[in-house]
Every structure is written in C-alpha cells, then in structure tokens.
Amino acid sequence: MILSVSRRTDIPNYYSEWFYNRIKEGFLYVRNPMNAHQISEIKITPDVVDCIVFWTKNPLPMMKRLNEIKDYNYYFQFTLTGYGNDVEVNLPNKKTEMIPIFQELSEKIGKQKVIWRYDPIFFSDRYTKEYHLKAFKSIAEALSGYTEKCVISFVDIYPKNKKNMDGSSSYELNDDELREFAEKLSKIAADNNIKIGSCAEKIDLDECGIIHNCCIDRELIEKIIGCKLNVGKDKNQRKECGCVESVEIGTYNTCKNGCAYCYANYSSKSVETNAAKYDPSSPLLCGQVQEDDKITIRKVESLKETQLSIFDM
C-alpha cells in the first residue's frame, strides 16, 4: 500500500514522535472521520508499505531520525509559499528558516524526493498577482537544484475555510487572468529547471506549460521503488484529482499550523482540544481507545507487480 502522512494534518511537524513510535510497533489505529467509534488497525511494516508520502510545511522535527525509516521508500510534499503569519500563523520565517530546511532535506534524501508545493494560491489586496510572482521567483531561485517539481493550486472555498477566507478579503481571477498568471509561473519554474504541475484544478493549464499533477504519484513511486504497481485512481478524492489510492492515517482538526485557507481544520478550539489529547505512545493520533470503540483490522498488502509482463522483457 501507499501510506499518506497526511492530507489531514502536519504529522512531520507536530506528531513525528508518534509516527516513529508507530513505525517501531509496526501498526497504528485510525478513526473513521465519518463514524468516530469505528477504528481501523493498520499494519505498516515494510513488507506491506510500498511508499510513504509525507505532507508538511516543516519537516525539521523528523529530519534527525530519518534513519529510523531507512527500510521504507518515501518522498515529501513540502509546502513553501510566500504568505506571512497573517495567513500561515505558526510557521517559521520562510527565507531564514524554511528554505534552508528544504535545502537540507533535499541534500539528505535527494531532490527527486522533495516536491515543492506553492499552494493553495489566493489573491487579496496584500497577496496580489504581482506579490505571488515575486515570492514564487524568489523561492524558485533558492530551490533551483534542490527539487525537480513544483505543484500549484488555487484556493477552493468550503464551509470549513469560508469564515477565515472571508476575513482575508480574497477575490478571484477570471480564467484568462489565471492563465496569464500561470504562464508567468511556468516560465519562472522553467528558468530554474523545475517542472510545474497543478493539483486538482478544473481549469486546463496545459497550454501554459502546467500539467495536471498527481500528488500520490504512481509514476514517481514506481521510479523510486524500481517496480511497477498494481494500483488505481483514488475514488475518494475529487474528480479532478489524479492521485492513486493510498491509506490516509491523519486526523482532522489536529494541525497546529493555523493556516487561514486550511481545508482540514474547521475550528481552532477543536484543534486545541484534540492536540491536548496527543500521546506519542498511543496507537491513535491525538486520543485513546474508548470502551464503545470497535477496532477492525484493515486488510493491507503490497501493490507491487510481482510478475514481469511481455513489455518488461
């Protein structure tokens, strides 16, 4: 299987000790977000985990212990934007801290395994097209040689982030304006030897040099592990999403980054309450098993193709 760590929360930044403990134990528990009393027990040993995809805005807490996952294949989706602490409330300074961390991680594990995410993009009186282009160029130049790929997306408004986004006075561009903006991003990326793709966007940006991207990327994973995978599209994601199936291990309302555009947190009070339940030794992230919980062992297996096809001969 492919392990997603995690779309729902920043495990590398805030819960890496828990994750490393789960690696040692070889299993973890995940609550069903639609039914809190249903818990899946998931085996996460190297024989069933083909690749781990980490999603983070700050992998530093993980980096000194990467040797503990040396038996696993993995790569990082590292979000690094031009927003200040008015939007990404609890993140360190991008220029003085986060860019050097990105560069260090790339040097440790290889530039192919660190994907730069400049997303989601929204526009406001402060964060204008010109602002984003300047910020994107500055970061791209700093990351040139440290990554092979950048992923962008434009913010979507959901009930969970509407209140925060309303407070930012954000506005939308029409499709022609978006394409013009995207073309400029594409050129900046190309100037710095970085390929660029979009994440789950309805608008077609192929003519701008921006392809539809897969974040849980079959092609990249096969390249990393040196083996074909028998895996299909993730049916639980949006129609525009190109990701293949993965097992998500995160929990909503536990990320402490405090980003205004966040899709996974709907209440800062809930985040505070849930984070207070964090126990690095618990099989559950931010919580304990209760009497009325039902634990079911989820069947998981490697997706590796074990037989050569005629096309591999």
How would you sum up this structure, described in words?
The chain is 29% helix and 18% strand. Helix 5 (129-143) packs parallel to helix 7. The strands form two sheets. Strands 9-8-7-6-5-4-1-10 form an eight-stranded parallel sheet. Strands 2-3-11 form a three-stranded mixed sheet. It is built from nine helices and eleven strands. The protein has helices at 11-14, 16-25, 60-63, 94-109, 129-143, 159-167, 175-191, 218-225, 268-275; strands spanning 2-5, 27-32, 35-43, 51-56, 74-79, 114-121, 149-154, 195-198, 211-212, 247-248, 294-297. It is an alpha/beta fold and 313 residues long.
Throw out a few tags for this protein.
eight-stranded parallel beta sheet; three-stranded mixed beta sheet; alpha/beta; globular; 29% helix; 313 residues
SSE inventory with pairings:
Layout: E1 2-5, H1 11-14, H2 16-25, E2 27-32, E3 35-43, E4 51-56, H3 60-63, E5 74-79, H4 94-109, E6 114-121, H5 129-143, E7 149-154, H6 159-167, H7 175-191, E8 195-198, E9 211-212, H8 218-225, E10 247-248, H9 268-275, E11 294-297
Parallel strand pairs: 1-4, 1-10, 3-11, 4-5, 5-6, 6-7, 7-8, 8-9
Antiparallel strand pairs: 2-3
Helix pairs in contact: 5-7
